[in-house]
Amino acid sequence: MSKKRVEIGQVFQSVGSPNGRTWRVRSTRTLYGILHAELVSTEDEGDAKTLSCLILADSSHYRRIEAQGAAV
Question: pTM (2 decimals)?
């Protein structure tokens, strides 16, 4: 299990989609005893999803990237 922390403002992209959508962490919350992140698309903030922080921190599923022109 990864010890990487997921923090508000970080940007992630799904592994295997190098030109795919990127997602910014808007908030975190505990659901069912597990920390989750609410993500918004960097292209359309109306598009949001919630994922376990364990999945985001797992480099086989998501990778953290630096968004162009963003203060991360």
Answer: 0.81
